[in-house]
Design goal:
By secondary structure, this protein is α+β, with helices and mostly antiparallel strands. The protein is built from eight helices and 14 strands. The site of ligand 2P0 has 14 residues, from helix 4.
Length: 336
C-alpha cells in the first residue's frame, strides 16, 4: 500500500461588495468584470484530501453526503482534481471530504470556501509549493468566487485581459484587522438549497439580458468607489455602493430570460426594513448574492440595535454576526 498523501485546509466564505456575474471564458472561469469582497470570519469549509493508489476513482463527500459520478458537485470536483493531477504530473486518484459550518448551496458562498480549501489542501498534499497568487488562480478554476477566499480581509479579483487567464487572480486590499469595527450580519431566511445555480444563471444572463452591458459599465464605477471607500474607511460610501451594486446585479438577473429571482418574501422584508432603519438613523446596508439570504453591513456601534430589530422580523430563521476574517490556511486536523 502506498503511503497516503494527505492534507487539510480551512477556507472562509466571502461576500462580494462589487459582485461577479458573467464569464468571458467558461472553461478557465474568467470573469467579465472585476469584483471586491470581504472574507468572512465565522463561515468556513474544512477540507481533507488524500491522494492514493488505493482509490480507483475520485471520491467526494460533502457534509457527510457522498456525491455520485454524474452529479454536478462530483463532476466539478473531479474536473478540478484532474487539473491538479496534470499540474503535479500525478495519476493518483483522491478522496475529498469537506464540511461547511453553514448551510451548503443556500447561497452563502459554499463553493468559494470549498474550492479555496481544496486548492490549498491539494497544493500541500502534492507538494506543489504554489504561492498565494498562483493558489488564487488555481482556486478560480474550481469556482470564480473561490479566487477571493484565498486572502483575508478585503480582496479584489482582477478580471484580467489575457486569454490564458494568467492575469486573472486575487489581491488583498487590506487585511482582516484593518477595519476593526466592520460587521456583517448574515440573515438566513431559508436553509433550502437554491434552485438556480450561479454558473447556469450567469451564463443565461450573459446570453439573454438586454441591459448586461450597462451592468458592466456600472461595475467599473462601483469598483472605483469601493476601493476609495476601503482606502478612506468611508463606511457610508462603502455601504451605499455595495447596496446599489447588489440591486444592479439582481436587476440583470430579473431581466434574464427566463427571469432569475433569488428573493423570497423575507428577503424583501429585510431589504425594506434596512431602508427604514436607515431613515431612523441606524446606518446599515444590505447585500444579497445568488440566494434569498441577506447580509446586513454595519459598524460595531450599531450591532445591538440591528440585532434587536432583526429579532422582530419573522422571516429570519437565524442570524450570524461576523466580521472580516482570515485567508486560507493548512491545518493538521484531518476529517478521515
Ligand atoms: C460573487 N456570486 O461575486 C457573486 C455574486 C453570486 C452572486 O460568485 O461559476 O459560485 O463557480 O464561477 O463563484 C457565485 O458564483 O460561480 C458568485 P462559478 P460562483 O460572489
Amino acid at each position: 500500500m502506498q503511503k497516503p498523501i494527505k492534507a487539510s485546509a480551512i477556507a472562509n466564505a466571502n461576500i462580494a461588495l462589487v459582485k461577479y456575474w458573467g464569464k468571458r471564458d467558461k472553461k478557465l472561469i474568467l470573469p467579465n468584470n472585476s469584483s471586491v469582497s470581504v472574507t468572512l470570519k465565522d463561515l468556513h469549509a474544512h477540507t481533507t484530501v488524500d491522494f492514493s493508489k488505493n482509490y480507483d476513482r475520485d471520491i467526494f463527500i460533502l457534509n457527510r453526503r457522498e456525491f455520485r459520478v454524474g452529479t454536478e458537485e462530483y463532476e466539478y470536483t473531479e474536473l478540478f482534481l484532474s487539473l491538479i493531477r496534470k499540474i503535479a504530473k500525478s495519476k493518483l486518484r483522491a478522496k475529498v471530504v469537506s464540511n461547511n459550518n453553514f448551510p451548503t448551496a443556500a447561497g452563502l458562498a459554499s463553493s468559494a470556501a470549498g474550492f479555496a480549501a481544496l486548492a490549498a489542501a491539494t497544493n500541500e498534499a502534492l507538494g506543489l509549493d504554489l504561492n498565494k497568487k498562483k493558489l488564487s488562480m488555481l482556486a478560480r478554476r474550481g469556482s470564480g468566487s473561490a479566487t477571493r477566499s484565498i486572502y483575508s480581509g478585503f480582496v479584489k479579483w482582477r478580471k484580467g485581459k489575457k486569454e490564458d487567464g494568467t492575469d486573472s487572480y486575487a489581491k488583498q486590499i487590506a487585511d482582516a484587522k484593518y477595519w476593526p469595527d466592520f460587521r456583517i450580519i448574515v440573515c438566513i431566511t431559508t436553509k433550502e438549497e437554491k434552485k438556480i445555480k450561479s454558473r447556469a444563471g450567469m451564463a443565461q444572463t450573459v446570453a439573454t439580458c438586454p441591459v448586461y452591458n450597462g451592468w458592466l459599465r456600472a461595475s467599473k464605477d462601483d469598483l472605483k468607489s469601493i476601493e476609495r471607500a476601503i482606502a478612506k474607511k468611508d463606511f457610508t460610501l462603502l455601504g451605499k455602493t455595495a447596496e446599489r451594486n447588489c440591486l444592479k446585479m439582481h436587476a440583470i438577473m430579473m431581466t434574464t430570460t427566463p427571469p432569475i429571482f433569488y428573493f423570497n418574501k423575507p428577503t424583501i422584508d429585510v431589504m425594506q426594513s434596512v431602508l427604514e432603519w436607515r431613515k431612523e438613523g441606524i446606518e446599515c446596508y444590505f447585500s444579497i448574492d445568488a440566494s434569498p439570504q441577506v447580509k446586513i453591513i454595519c459598524l460595531e456601534e450599531n450591532i445591538k440595535k440591528v440585532k434587536e430589530k432583526c429579532k422582530h422580523l419573522k422571516g429570519i430563521k437565524k442570524i450570524i454576526i461576523t466580521k472580516p476574517g482570515e485567508g486560507v490556511r493548512i491545518i493538521k486536523k484531518h476529517l478521515f
